[in-house]
Amino acid sequence: MSSSGLNGKVALITGGTKGIGLAVAQRLAKDGALVAVNYGSDKKAADEVVHHIGADRCIAIQADAGSVAGVAKIVEETVKKYGRIDILIANAGVLPMKTLESTTEEDFDKTFALNVKGPYFLIQKAVPHMKEGSHVVTISSSLCHSTAVTPPYLLYNSTKGAIEQMTRVLAKDLGSKKILVNCVAPGPTATELFMRGKSEQIISMIANQSPMQRLGQPDEIADVIAFVSSDQNRWMSGQLCMVNGAAFPS
């Protein structure tokens, strides 16, 4: 096992069966954590995660991470299995490409439900089961800090801006309970969600925004999240960690 301070910890990850969430689940499990992964509808992917990590060290929980009832179920089943939560990763999200003109009320409500309301109430439900020294990690996007962001990211960036403010204030709110709260903001990362609908030309153009001339990989984001949520981080809270290969300045 790793000496990273994750051995025996209980980690709950929403959206934990694909992309960055999957990489985080695998990394934390590799470092000795007991893992609960939430998923929306793809049971096959969830079963594969449990099989890969091991049914004795991983459970998959189907629930809508954008509803209060859904996040309550996720927390309840995690605590029923493991007795507590040490690490909470509010990762589930959706990336709609919507300009102001193209956004419908349904688009707005669905996106804010999964990207903002879900994390907000997930944390609310989980905190009673988290002890001193526990960690909450939220997920934003480096696009919130890019001057080159394009209009179709309007709705998505609006939700991630909310997440960053939520993180800053929650760090104050939960600091009295000695719970640390931080936000990780990946840059362009080679996940299925990111690649969807983009041409090779567009992907290449985005990759070249980094001086390293490539996209990030999910496991590279997971490495940072693993540190932020481990016992090696005892004092950093309320902070935004930009993980983007210098694609965008902070």
Describe this protein's structure.
With 250 residues, the chain is an alpha/beta fold. It has one domain (10-187, 218-243): NAD(P)-binding Rossmann-like Domain (Rossmann fold, 3-Layer(aba) Sandwich). Helices cover 42% and strands 14% of the residues. The chain has 8 helices and 7 strands, in the order βαβαβαβαβαβαααβ. The protein has helices at residues 19-30, 43-53, 68-82, 105-126, 154-175, 192-195, 200-207, 218-228, and strands spanning 10-13, 34-39, 58-62, 87-90, 135-139, 180-186, 240-243. It has a 7-stranded parallel sheet with strand order 3-2-1-4-5-6-7, with helices on both faces. Helix 4 (105-126) packs parallel to helix 5. The protein is globular and about 45 Å long. The mean pLDDT is 95.
